[in-house]
Amino acid sequence: MTKEIYIISLMFLVAALAIAWQIVRTAQHVTYITLADGRRQERSLPLLIRLVLPFCSVVPAFITENKSLEESRQRISKKLVSGGYEGLIEAHEVIALRAMMPLGLGLALCLLLRFSFDSMPSGIGAALEARQYMLYLLLLILLGFYPDVWLKASVAKRHKSIERALPFVLDLLTLSVESGLDFMTGISRIIQYRKIDPLSEELIRVFREIQVGRSRKVALQNFADRIDHSDIRSVTNALVQADELGTGIGTALRIQSDQIRVKRFQRAEKLGNEAPVKMLFPLIAFIFPSVFLILLGPVILQMAIRGGF
Known about the structure:
single chain
């Protein structure tokens, strides 16, 4: 009997070491995307998604590629492009992740939690075990929504980076055009000397599309569709209109730069006005009780020692 226990324990140890080795190996693995000019940029998916993604192939194709989900796949593909993950993960894989995250990883974590209650301190373990089914349900729901939350956060993060860089890039492009350079040369100078960021990646793609023969209008419209941001659409519409009407691009760029900078200040003012409201809950829930405890705690303790108020 003791020998069998040793063998089972050794098997569990080997399995745990194999899982840990796979997690470390996945965490250290670096992936790259290839930019339009051939340069490679490091970009990695979150660790949880990288761990589950190889198992998404077990999800049947009639689920991930169902015709009723065509609209959902198109929306996911658009978000993947906007978030900068085009080529690293496909829309049908995100749909598969919605199933595999709770049903695969979620059930494994629930099973691990179930056998961990006994090893926890008695009070914590008993409290969690009494509410284990609620805990399992909450964990499965969170993992089910994780792919969509990650995708939405990735798009928002990339949009924020573009919002910060856009006024300065427009200023550089305006100076280049007004100094006598044409539009293509101005973009070429910008992508040559600027650090690679989301906006530079998209400008490189615009530059290459125009180089291979697409019209400036089509390249700019594709640029706006990929990023899917109101500021970019405003800039591209102004450039297309200036190109069609034959007016100066430099004037249009300067107007758009000023407008975007005004919008940026307005967003900052809005966030500043929202700050007191957002600070209200932490003040009431955490800071005020601590202050009252420090100020009134000794008084209440002395009254309790003396026998009452």
